[in-house]
Specification:
The complex is a heterodimer of chains A (112) and B (116). With 112 residues, chain A is mainly beta. Chain A is built from no helices and eleven strands. In chain A, strands 2, 4, 5, 6, 9, 10 and 11 form a seven-stranded mixed sheet that branches. A four-stranded antiparallel sheet of chain A has the order 1-3-8-7, with no helix packed on it. In chain A, a hairpin with a 6-residue loop joins strand 4 and strand 5. The chains are: A mainly beta (112), B mainly beta (116). Chains A and B meet through strand 5, strand 9 and strand 10 of A and strand 5, strand 6 and strand 11 of B.
Chain lengths: 112, 116
């Protein structure tokens, strides 16, 4: 079965650089979510999109932005990277007809 | 506001024994869903089991069962006959089920170590 695809799996950036993370949801899933998980922490909700419109916003820094495209894939753009942005970034997708989320394998971002 | 509490930061269990991971929650929603996820050291988030607040029977998925006590607001995960591969971080999570596009919120997690 198709899963949620995230790319890249690993990313190393320097402070003040920018990063773009990509997420390809399960086909026919209409909602995409982004989560940030710091080392030893629980995942924190950043932002979600339903039918290409932002549907909810959590603790997402102003330096971050995201969007969902016409093919339903989503990108998380992160600018002026800080050391504290080093984390595992998850994308998940869902549809109203199922009760769970499916998470991607995550992108591990390291800021040096 | 919703809140998930997992009071066991870490647990050590002998292989083949049953394990209970505790989870309590707080919400004012009437319709909500409770989830358990497993996160091995590789980092992926693996869905284990779901319980809806109106489900009368406890959810089961293979070796996993969810002990749902609505009045006590608890949703403990029971793993029967633990295996070495069960060593991982386990997260309890919940969502407002009136809006199934709503986000999931997570507890702090319990790190489970299975001993040979």
């Amino acid at each position: 079965a198709a899963g949620v695809i995230q790319s890249p799996r690993h990313l190393i950036k320097e402070k003040r650089e920018t990063a773009t993370l990509k997420c390809y949801p399960i086909p026919r899933h209409d909602t995409v979510y982004w989560y940030q998980q710091g080392p030893g922490q629980d995942p924190q909700f950043l932002i979600s999109f339903y039918e290409k419109m932002q549907s909810d916003k959590g603790s997402i820094p102003d330096r971050f932005s995201a969007q969902q495209f016409s093919d339903y894939h989503s990108e998380l753009n992160m600018s002026s990277l800080e050391l504290g942005d080093s984390a595992l970034y998850f994308c998940a997708s869902s549809s109203p007809s199922n009760y769970g989320y499916t998470f991607g394998s995550g992108t591990r971002l390291t800021v040096v | 506001a919703q809140k998930i509490t997992q009071t066991q930061p870490g647990m050590f269990v002998q292989e083949k024994e049953a394990v209970t991971l505790d989870c309590t929650y707080d919400t004012s929603d009437q319709s909500y869903g409770l989830f358990w996820y497993k996160q091995p050291s590789s980092g992926e988030m693996i869905f284990l089991i779901y319980q809806g607040s109106y489900d009368e029977q406890n959810a089961t998925e293979g070796r996993y069962s969810l002990n749902f006590q609505k009045a006590r607001k608890s949703a403990n995960l029971v793993i029967s006959a633990s295996q070495l591969g069960d060593s991982a971080m386990y997260f309890c999570a919940m969502r407002d089920d009136l809006n199934r596009d709503d986000k999931i919120i997570f507890g702090k997690g319990t790190r489970l170590h299975i001993l040979p």
